[in-house]
Amino acid sequence: MSGSGAVFAAVDLGATSGRVITGRVGPGELVSAEAHRFPNTPVRLPDGLRWDVLALYQGMLDGLRAVARTGPVASVGIDTWAVDYGLLDSDGALLGLPFHYRDGRNAEAARRVLAECDGRELYAVGGLQQLPFNTVFQLAAHRTSAQWEAARTVLLIPDLLTHWLTGSVGAEITNASTTGLFDASAGTWSDALIGRLGLDRSWFPPLREPGDPAGTLLPHVAEYTGLPAGTPVTAVASHDTASAVAAVPATEPGFAYLSCGTWSLAGLELTAPVLTEESRAANFTNERGVDGTIRYLRNVMGLWLLEECRRTWDRQGVSPGLDRLLAEAARARPFAAVIDPDDEAFLAPGDMPARIDAHLVRTGQAPPDGPGGYVRCVLESLALAHRRTLRLAAALAGREPVRIHLVGGGSRNALLCQWTADATGLPVTAGPAEATALGNILLQARAHGLVGGLDDMRRLVARTQELRHYTPRGDQRAWDRAAARLEPVRAPGVPPSTAVRAPTGADRTRYGRRRKETHG
Fold first, then answer.
1. Which of 122, 202, 213, 260 has the fewest CB atoms within 10 Å, i.e. is most exposed?
2. Does position 510 have pLDDT exceeding 70, yes or no?
3. C-alpha–C-alpha distance, residues 116 and 110, integer Å
4. Top-level CATH class of 6-240?
5. C-beta separation of 225 from 71 below 8 A
6. pLDDT-derived band of residue 503, with 50, 70 and 90 as boundaries?
7. Tell me, what's the pLDDT at 514?
8. What is the CA radius of gyration of the chain?
9. Is 264 helix (H, G, I), strand (E, B) or coil?
10. How do residues 302-346 score in pLDDT, each as one tens digit?
11. Which residues are catalytic?
């Protein structure tokens, strides 16, 4: 990777695969390349679904080894999904493979915690969307195990991997904010909640901000990878969504974002949390972003629905490629069937087409008659969920977005991008697909003085990355009618979308005026 800037290594672990990406950052330069990719395959053991974190660590080491063959790097940063953790004993050894957030043990534990500690109390401090896999509920499920008696430290997945690279112990703040044990207003661990739930405060390490040093590679890691001894590891926004939002190519204020992959994380970037009762009832989350910002969002079941359909068809020997499926979806009848993607029936792995059929029959709709129909159902339903979530966010936060930035793997799906624009009535800018890795790289570069604050980072992404733009088309009344069909079966706690006004002509005029002023 040639150029005048410095090179950084981003370890980016997702729910199905991990990558090590190199990125060069310099004046007007942001270039990335994939050095190594490896699978992330959960393991079902007798006691539940677990992450094979040892295989992930080995894949990360092999990726850094591949990076070293191209030359030294200025630092290494790690981002992963949120909420999952490992328990360490007093010697710093891992007590068993970490549980997977889709494991079924969490629902009952969530009910027990909420029976002891009112959900309003939890939200008033943490501001977190109530999901059965939040770390606070997972820890409650873990308390009956023998491992619990030996535990002395809790490390979220990126902090655990950083610990293995460097020997240091810390908790990066964007991931810590997803645990349900973090004070959203103060930006610290909540000693009150930790004590209220009977947890040991000493288990929770000191917090790190994105850009803080997290140590240097241990000698045996440097020897294996071939990277120089003393190579720094930098804390980035270790929650992958936080890194992705940092790399949103926004050149104007008032944007909404969709970080779209296995999940769709839909929301707004705010300067302070929204901790109202209305926000709690709507099940919105207040997660920490870069520089003290708040990612005000809801988790929407994302392209997991499509990928689980494809896995089911593969097992059945019906395996049309994605391009063919999308072409068939484009030809299928619009709004023939719609589902609520947030229905809990869609959370666990399994036969997704059969679950969609059951949902449709239960709601008085006919199941699709072929794979293209299922794909259209999924993508139109996701566009409707994006619309519902962003309109609720705007109403609850008192801020109307004028553009949606859709980043992540979903930005490659032209149908989803266009239908999101059509459903919301807002223009959509799609890309970059690798926003998470780019955010990881840029935060390392900022720590080394090569780029400025969030605005500078985002302008650099906008100038250097390939983006696509989608303008709303057609009559929104068809989307209104489809949304109305979902109201009787919407997820618990989600207010009716009719309570939130649609973007007005004035909003769109204001957007157009800003675009003209910004881009000439």
1. 202
2. no
3. 10
4. alpha beta
5. no
6. very low
7. 31
8. 22
9. strand
10. 999 999 999 999 999 987 899 999 999 999 999 999 999 999 899
11. 240
Q: Read off the amino acid at residue 477.
A: R
29-39 and 17-26 strand pairing: antiparallel
Tokens encoding 140: 């409650």
At 24, the amino acid letter reads: R
6-240 shares its CATH topology with 241-300+386-519: yes
Tokens of 25: 């950052």
What's at 183, amino acid-wise?
D
Phi-psi region of 387 (alpha: psi -120 to 50; beta: other; left: phi over 0): alpha
pLDDT at 118: 87
Helix, strand, coil percent content, the chain, rounded in steps of 5:
45, 20, 35
Q: How far is it, in rounded angstroms, from Cα 468 to Cα 109?
A: 43
Distance (Å, whole) CA 122 – CA 125: 6
Domain 241-300+386-519 belongs to what topology?
A: Nucleotidyltransferase; domain 5 (3.30.420)
Q: Tell me how far apart the alpha carbons of residues 238 and 82 are, in angstroms, rounded to a whole number.
A: 8
pLDDT value at residue 487? 76
pLDDT in tens, 358-405: 999 999 999 999 999 999 999 999 999 999 999 999 999 999 999 999
User: Which distant-in-sequence residues (6+ apart) come within 8 Å of 93 by Cβ?
Assistant: none
Instruction: Supply the pTM of this predicted model.
Output: 0.90
Domain map (residue ranges) of the chain: 6-240, 241-300+386-519, 304-380
**How does 143-176 read in b/e, with b if 16+ C-beta sit within 10 Å?**
eeeeeeeebebbbbbbbbbbbbbbebbbbbbbbb
Q: Are 405 and 249 in contact (CB under 8 A)?
A: yes
